[in-house]
Design brief:
Layout (H helix, E strand, L loop, with lengths): L1 H15 L3 H49 L6 H11 L3 E8 L2 E10 L2 E9 L2 H4 L2
Antiparallel strand pairs: 1-2, 2-3
C-alpha cells in the first residue's frame, strides 16, 4: 500500500508540471529577442562608424590627389563629392601644403557619427 501511495504522488507531480517546458522555451525566446533588439542598434552604429572612417579616408586621399596635381579640381570640393558618394557629408577640410585633413559625418538613429582623416605624399608626412 505504501508503495502505491508514493507512485501516485509522483504521477501527480509530473502531471502538474505539464507545459512547463513550453513556458521556459517562450521565456528563453523572449530573452533572445530582447537581447537582439538591444544589440542591433549597437552593431549598426559600429558598422556606420567604419563606413564613415572609410569615407573620410577616401575624401582625404581625393583632396590630397587634387592638391598634389595628380587630379584636376578644387581639393575641398572634390573631398565633399567623394564623401557624398560614400554616404557622408564633409564637415571640415584643411589644407597644409600638400597635406589634406578632412572631417566627415553621418547621422544614424539620430546620433552623429564623425571621423577625421589626413592624407598627403609620403615626403610631406615626415616634415
Amino acid at each position: 500500500m505504501r508503495r502505491w501511495a508514493i507512485r501516485r504522488w509522483e504521477v501527480r507531480s509530473v502531471r502538474g508540471e505539464r507545459g512547463a517546458g513550453s513556458v521556459l522555451a517562450v521565456a528563453v525566446l523572449g530573452a533572445v529577442v530582447c537581447l537582439a533588439a538591444l544589440l542591433l542598434p549597437l552593431q549598426l552604429a559600429l558598422a556606420t562608424k567604419q563606413a564613415v572612417a572609410s569615407a573620410a579616408d577616401a575624401a582625404a586621399l581625393a583632396a590630397a590627389d587634387v592638391r598634389t596635381g595628380i587630379v584636376a579640381g578644387i581639393p575641398c570640393e572634390t573631398a565633399a563629392a567623394v564623401a557624398a558618394a560614400n554616404g557622408a557629408s564633409l564637415e571640415g577640410c584643411a589644407l597644409d601644403g600638400l597635406v589634406a585633413t578632412v572631417v566627415v559625418s553621418r547621422r544614424i538613429l539620430g546620433i552623429r557619427v564623425a571621423a577625421a582623416a589626413t592624407a598627403g605624399p609620403p615626403s610631406a608626412a615626415g616634415d
